[in-house]
Recover the amino acids of this structure.
């Protein structure tokens, strides 16, 4: 029996199945996505957080156990940006005492700036995007905008976006299904936003320079969903 399927390609092409006495067409291999109950939904960045070409802002920290938590022991004045994707820090922000982490109750916003990753299919494959199968042919592409952890990413295939298994992990007996397309190799930037003592909201990089300050320490994540102060 002939198998018909709709192909959603990043390049906007499609495959139509004919009828008549043509030989049967085999469906591309199906790659299933494991349950992702702990995978957060991707947030839509505000218009003010549009990043330069090739970079993307996601409104959370990435990974199974994001961190480390930023434990501000006493108010500290640090370089900051008015918007996450502003580039160089042009503000000075006095960060209030608190524990800053997506699992903490102290008020803050969180984000990650990372390069967009594009993967090109080496052969026909079906991937799941938000539990909907997307059929790709050789040379079609999948775009990764966020890594959530446990092998799950935010994907974009054509107009379809949502969580799915990271394409670099998909393989069968022939090997990997995708090649990474060369692009930007910027390091991921993890940051958070607070209302500064000066009264303005600002974004601060949660980087080594911040943790090197004597007023700041690395907190802990003793279990999933829990952040705690440094000893």
């Amino acid at each position: 029996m002939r198998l018909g399927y709709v192909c959603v390609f990043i390049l906007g092409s499609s495959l139509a199945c004919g009828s008549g006495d043509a030989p049967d067409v085999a469906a591309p291999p199906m790659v299933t996505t494991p349950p992702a109950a702990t995978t957060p939904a991707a947030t839509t960045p505000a218009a003010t957080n549009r990043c330069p070409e090739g970079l993307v802002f996601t409104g959370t920290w990435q990974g199974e156990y994001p961190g480390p938590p930023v434990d501000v022991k006493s108010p500290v004045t640090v370089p900051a940006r008015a918007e996450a994707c502003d580039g160089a820090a042009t503000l000075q922000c006095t960060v209030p005492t608190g524990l800053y982490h997506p699992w903490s109750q102290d008020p803050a916003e969180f984000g990650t700036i990372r390069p967009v990753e594009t993967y090109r299919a080496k052969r026909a494959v079906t991937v799941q995007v938000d539990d909907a199968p997307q059929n790709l042919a050789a040379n079609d592409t999948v775009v990764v905008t966020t890594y959530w952890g446990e092998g799950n990413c935010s994907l974009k295939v054509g107009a379809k976006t949502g969580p799915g298994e990271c394409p670099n992990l998909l393989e069968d007996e022939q090997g990997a299904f995708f090649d990474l397309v060369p692009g930007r190799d910027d390091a991921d930037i993890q940051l958070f936003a607070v209302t500064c003592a000066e009264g303005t909201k600002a974004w601060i990089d949660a980087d080594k320079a911040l943790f090197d300050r004597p007023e700041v320490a690395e907190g802990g994540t003793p279990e999933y969903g829990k952040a705690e102060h440094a000893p």
User: Anything to note?
Assistant: Residues 1-48 have pLDDT under 50 and may be disordered.
